[in-house]
Structures are given as C-alpha cells and as structure tokens.
Amino acid sequence: EVQLVESGGDLVQPGGSLTVSCAASGFSFSDAWMSWVRQAPGKGLEWVGRIKSKSKGGTTEYAAPVKDRFTISRDDSKNTLSLQMNSLKAEDTALYYCTKLDFGDYVTPQFWGQGALVTVSS
Amino acid sequence: DVVMTQSPLSLPVTLGQPASISCRSGQSLLYSDGNTYLSWFHQRPGQSPRRLIYQVSNRDSGVPDRFSGSGSGTDFTLKISRVEAEDVGLYYCMQGSHWPITFGQGTRLAIK
C-alpha cells in the first residue's frame, strides 16, 4: 500500500524559512517522480513543483510563484521527499501535499499524503 | 498558463440522480505524444484529494463505474450516473499537457 506521510508543518513569520518532509513507503521511491501540491485555506489546488527520479536526472521544476524561493529534494536512501521554503510570504499559507506522480505520464498526482499545514503570519 | 474553467461551481443533486461537471481548457490538451493529460480528482470534506480519472476517461483502481470521463481537445466532462451520499465534496479537473500543471477552480457537489 502506498503511504505518504508529511511532517514539519508549522507557524512561521513572514520572511522566514521552513522545511516540510514526506516519508514514503509501499513503492519504489527511487524510481518515482514526486511532487508538491498546495491548498490555501478554503481555496483550490495549486501545483508547487516536481522532482524527477535520479535515473532521469533528478531535476526539479517549479511553479512561478515559488520559483527561486522553494527547493524540492529527495533522499532515496531514506525514502524521503523534502520541500525547503525560504522568504515565506503570507500567501504561502497552505496545506502542502506530497504526491507520487503516475509512472505512466509523470505529471498526474496518483497518490496523495494527508498534508502538512504551513502558516505564515506574524 | 493554461486556464481550466469548471462549471457549474456548485452542484446540488438528489440521491440516485445523475450529475455532470464540465471542464474547459484555454488551449488543446492533446499532447505531442498523442495522449491527452486531463485528470479528475475528488476531495471529500477534511480529506486529501483522490484521483478518479486519468487521461480523460481511464478510471483509477477502486473507482466505482458510475464515474465516467469523456471529452477531447478543450472540452471535458465528468459524469456520475447515480449520485450516492459518499460522492459529496469538491471535484477538480487538472491538465498535465502544458507546463505549469494547472487545476480547475473546483466544483462543489452537495446532496439536495
């Protein structure tokens, strides 16, 4: 059974930094492409970015609102995905979902975690 | 960015009756490999989203066959043949044919 468990959500001040993590199990993490999707309170879903498997280069892609502030990384030895967030703004307040992308297309979130809540406020 | 427009945004339905949600994209979602990367997700209150449909019309494992997806190009539809109580919540379409990935604004299905 695929399991994705996020952790690290917290209250952080504007301009601050935070890292949320995702522990993955039930599938070959090293072969998987992974992504982060966020949902602001009472709002819809927003793509944050994705990371390819190391065998496909391990490169990352980001949505414009977070580019140059957020960094996605992976530790295949620990089956862990991370999202480092810098220069946080109030509009980054959201539930951050870790997702496993479909092997067939590498873009569609096939499995989702329960989310980590990040609140940016003074 | 490709804008995904869903309608209606609110959908009250009587139990046992059919329901239909439309999703229109700002440009064709037919990708150069011949596939169309349009998916549908369902999010029950307080839960994470769950994928229902991928590549327009393929149901995910465990998804009841009362759910079906159709469409091509820029116009897509999710249909529920007979709504059940567990179908309440938000429904989102998502396109993966163009970067960045974008979602529709969501349709809230409620029981009348």
Write the layout of secondary structure elements.
The complex is a heterodimer of chains A (122) and B (112).
Chain A: E1 3-7, E2 11-12, E3 18-25, E4 34-39, E5 45-51, E6 60-62, E7 70-75, E8 80-85, E9 94-101, E10 109-112, E11 116-120
Chain B: E1 4-7, E2 10-13, E3 19-25, E4 38-43, E5 50-54, E6 58-59, E7 67-72, E8 75-80, E9 89-95, E10 102-103, E11 107-111
Parallel strand pairs in B: 2-11
Antiparallel strand pairs in B: 1-3, 3-8, 4-5, 4-9, 5-6, 7-8, 9-10, 9-11
Overall description:
The complex is a heterodimer of chains A (122) and B (112). Chain A is mainly beta and 122 residues long. Helices cover 0% and strands 49% of the residues of chain A. Chain A has strands spanning 3-7, 11-12, 18-25, 34-39, 45-51, 60-62, 70-75, 80-85, 94-101, 109-112, 116-120. In chain A, strands 2, 4, 5, 6, 9, 10 and 11 form a seven-stranded mixed sheet that branches. A four-stranded antiparallel sheet of chain A has the order 1-3-8-7, with no helix packed on it. Chain A is globular, with a radius of gyration of 13 Å. The mean pLDDT of chain A is 97. The mean pLDDT of chain B is 97. The chains are: A mainly beta (122), B mainly beta (112). Chains A and B meet through strand 5 and strand 10 of A and strand 5, strand 9 and strand 10 of B.
Largest interface: A-B, 21 and 23 residues
Shape of chain B: globular
Order of helices and strands of chain B: EEEEEEEEEEE
Helical region count of chain B?
A: 0
Tell me the number of strands of chain B: 11
Nearest-integer average pLDDT of chain A: 97
Distance between the termini of chain B: 35 Å
Largest sheet of chain B: 7 strands, mixed
Our Rg estimate of chain B from Cα atoms comes to 13 Å
| Mean of all residue-level pLDDT scores of chain B | 97
* Computed structural class of chain A: mainly beta
Question: pLDDT below 50 for ≥5 consecutive residues: which ranges of chain A?
Answer: none
Number of helices of chain A: 0
Question: Looking at the structure, what is the overall shape of chain A?
Answer: globular
The percentage of residues in β strands of chain B lies in over 45%
N-to-C SSE string of chain A, H for helix and E for strand: EEEEEEEEEEE
Helix content of chain B: under 10%
- State the low-pLDDT regions of chain B, or none: none
Using DSSP, what is the number of strands of chain A?
11
Rg of chain A is 13 Å
